């Protein structure tokens, strides 16, 4: 699709779009940045590739119980939560078969919503990392959420994916979850030296206005190095510009949530 991950935000206390590598660790870094603000955060890895899980030094290929068991076998989500930098409900290779297993189940679109319900009050934010497609796992994430933060790579092909996402959200609102919508758009892979990146941000701002975050995630090798070490970029390079970008993003997310509460 050309979009990065979706960060659904269930309720006033809780937060997820498709595609490129930057998006695969966005929810993780944002989750740690929110935790630095003394907020209770749960990360939920719905991607069979398990990038979010690997970002915490865990191997999705060897995990015995994961979100697959939660969605398909109705295992309590607490059983697959690992407590590392923040709490994370892990993915495994089995999750690749979840779409097929869910397809024949009644209420298949609400499996995640029901799984999260018992623990929702234990957290301020639940960040859900989805697969790079608008399949049943991503639909589950959208149904369980009140809002979506959309990381978008600063290139034209990625911008086009927003149209497909908006169409999907419209159908979700009509049929499954009337509350879900785009809470914010995050420019990623931004390079201020190139006209292409700057024009991409301008196009986003022209079309989405205040939905576009002021924070821009710039290209840096730190984002690739941190997952290799099994940590967030905030722990890997706490005083670096990459970590500060996610702290700035966390503040924008929190300020937006407060503004909605007082609206």
How would you sum up this structure in a few lines?
This protein is α/β, with parallel strands linked by helices.
* Main sheet: strand order: 2-3-1-4
Rounded radius of gyration (Å): 17 Å
Under CATH at level 1, the class stands as: Alpha Beta
How would you name the oligomeric state of the polypeptide chains in this document? single chain
CATH level-four homologous superfamily name = P-loop containing nucleotide triphosphate hydrolases
CATH architecture: 3-Layer(aba) Sandwich
Report how far apart the termini are: 34 Å
Calculate the mean pLDDT score and round it: 85
Helix proportion range: 40-55%
Overall geometry comes to: globular
Q: How much beta, percentage-wise?
A: 5-15%
User: Which segments are poorly predicted (pLDDT under 50) over 5 or more consecutive residues?
Assistant: 1-24
Q: Structural class from helices and strands?
A: alpha/beta
The CATH topology assignment is: Rossmann fold
Query: How many beta-strand elements?
Result: 6
Number of domains: 1
Strand/helix succession: HEHHEEHHEHEHEHHHH
Helical element count? 11
Largest sheet: 4 strands, mixed
């Amino acid at each position: 699709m050309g979009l990065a991950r979706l960060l659904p935000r269930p309720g006033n206390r809780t937060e997820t779009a498709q595609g490129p590598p930057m998006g695969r660790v966005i929810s993780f870094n944002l989750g740690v940045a929110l935790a630095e603000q003394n907020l209770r955060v749960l990360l939920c890895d719905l991607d069979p590739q398990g990038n979010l899980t690997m970002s915490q030094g865990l191997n999705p290929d060897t995990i015995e119980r994961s979100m697959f068991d939660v969605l398909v076998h109705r295992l309590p989500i607490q059983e697959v939560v690992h407590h590392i930098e923040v709490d994370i409900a892990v993915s495994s290779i089995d999750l690749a078969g979840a779409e097929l297993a869910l397809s024949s189940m009644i209420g298949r679109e609400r499996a995640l919503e029901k799984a999260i319900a018992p623990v929702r009050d234990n957290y301020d934010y639940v960040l859900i990392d989805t697969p790079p497609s608008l399949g049943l796992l991503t639909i589950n994430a959208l149904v369980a959420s009140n809002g979506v933060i959309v990381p978008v790579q600063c290139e034209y092909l990625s911008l086009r994916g927003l149209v497909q996402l908006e169409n999907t959200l419209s159908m979700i609102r009509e049929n499954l979850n009337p509350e879900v919508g785009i809470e914010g758009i995050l420019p990623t892979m931004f390079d201020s030296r190139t006209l292409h990146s700057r024009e991409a941000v301008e196009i986003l701002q022209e079309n989405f206005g205040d939905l576009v975050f002021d924070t821009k995630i710039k290209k840096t090798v730190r984002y690739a190095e941190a997952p290799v070490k099994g940590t967030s970029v905030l722990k890997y390079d706490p005083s670096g510009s990459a970590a500060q970008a996610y702290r700035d993003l966390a503040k924008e997310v929190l300020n937006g949530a407060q503004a909605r509460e007082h609206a």
